[in-house]
Design brief:
Length: 171
């Protein structure tokens, strides 16, 4: 039963992100988003730790102290800021993400929020989630943080019409 629920959840999330990516002109990224979630390394962990209201990777991390599924996922998906890290021997350096991955990251955050909150999703809740995330140490490039903050704020203030604006952003 957990396997089916997890499968439905990742499909739902993937469709939500794909819809967002299409709205901002990222057709290929929308189609290919999170395909690694269907690999055994990620899918089996998702089935084992499925809760329905939070990432199974967080449950695995609590149990083991790390998440192999997350390490696999972030290393294959460029829309995660954790992918853009280097020089760990010297403390780690966040590298600025290319714009197309920043846009996909925003769509990913919105897709996760919609999947977890369901009918209770609002842009204000998503913005609040982001502000709470920003209150913790975050190894994300300052430009990438600013991008997410600005566009989530725009969603709160202006709603869905910002997707058209975001589609036109080039730099």
């Amino acid at each position: 039963m957990k396997a089916w629920q997890h499968f439905k959840t990742i499909n739902h999330h993937k469709m939500l992100v794909m819809k967002g990516c299409f709205r901002v002109g990222l057709y290929k990224q929308g189609l290919l988003h999170d395909l690694s979630k269907y690999t055994p390394t990620e899918f089996l962990v998702g089935c084992r730790y499925f809760q329905g209201n939070l990432s199974p990777n967080n449950i695995e991390r609590k149990e083991k102290g790390y998440s192999l599924a997350w390490l696999h996922h972030k290393g294959r998906n460029k829309h995660h800021y954790e992918y853009w890290q280097d020089n760990f021997d010297n403390g780690g350096i966040p590298i600025e993400m290319p714009l197309r991955y920043k846009k996909e990251m925003l769509c990913d955050y919105l897709g996760a929020g919609r999947a977890y909150y369901g009918k209770d999703f609002t842009y204000i809740k998503e913005y609040t989630w982001w502000q709470n995330k920003m209150n913790k140490p975050l190894a994300m490039h300052p430009s990438d943080k600013k991008f997410i903050t600005i566009w989530l704020s725009e969603l709160v203030n202006e709603g869905d019409c910002i997707f058209r604006k975001l589609r036109e952003v080039e730099k």
